[in-house]
Design a protein that fits this description.
single chain; 238 residues; 4 helices; flat
């Protein structure tokens, strides 16, 4: 890849423009985070207090951090795997052969192509089961009101050399902090932070990881854009 002086100058301009756009987007994200931090700092904090949690729902306190147990009211099970769970995801995968064309260049600059065969486990179909109700600090809610933590891999069972079933589950009980809008005898906009107390949850939410993640992705995007620009012939610059 031959890079000319003109391409370097244009790439500097591209980087400058994309950085300027990045700072604009980052400013919007920062403003949104500042508003969120204000909500977190004014939210009610309830630590394992069932009576206070019930009182807060009756009196419409608004945003609240509540620490306690999240449990499945009606546990579920399937014949495939032992045990009781709050959520089960079963994925059927098939071992499928694929082909791709590989192009290589030798030391003399000659290109050669050949067909390569490879195998992958591809998703074919899936099934989901979940409980109907979840309880938090003893109060029951519909399953969709409180999001469960991420599923955990349980097992892979092979039906044959070409078909297998992969199982992911959620346990029947978790402990952590629930952040939600509390009122009208229920909660909404709930988020559950598994195995985190109120203090560590607030610390995590105010860590600014969103900005760090944005800049990592944006810098990667800038790098890919510049490399793609260099990869093109760019005869229009001559």
């Amino acid at each position: 890849m031959n890079i000319t002086k003109r391409e370097i100058l244009v790439s500097i301009a591209i980087i400058s423009i994309l950085l300027a756009i990045g700072f604009l987007i980052a400013g919007k994200i920062s403003d949104s985070l500042t508003n969120s931090y204000q909500e977190y700092n004014t939210a009610v904090q309830i630590d394992r207090d069932k009576e206070l949690f019930g009182y807060s729902m009756r009196t419409n306190v608004g945003n609240a951090f509540i620490y306690g147990d999240l449990t499945a009211v009606d546990t579920i099970s399937i014949p495939d795997i032992p045990g009781l769970y709050s959520y089960i995801y079963k994925l059927e995968e098939h071992h499928v052969q694929h082909t791709r064309v590989i192009t290589t260049t030798d030391s003399k600059g000659h290109t050669h192509t050949h067909v390569e065969h490879y195998w992958t486990w591809d998703a074919y179909r899936y099934w989901k089961w979940h409980c109907k109700e979840l309880a938090f600090l003893g109060y029951k809610f519909d399953y969709n009101v409180i999001p469960l933590p991420d599923t955990e891999y349980y097992d892979t069972i092979y039906k044959s050399g070409c078909v297998r079933f992969v199982y992911y589950v959620c346990k029947t009980k978790y402990i952590g902090t629930l952040y939600a809008n509390v009122g009208n005898d229920t909660i909404k906009d709930a988020r559950f932070y598994n195995e985190m107390d109120i203090e560590s949850t607030i610390k995590w939410l105010e860590s600014g990881y969103e900005l760090i993640l944005f800049w990592c992705l944006w810098i990667l995007f800038i790098g890919v854009s510049v490399f793609g620009f260099y990869y093109l012939e760019n005869r229009w610059l001559e």
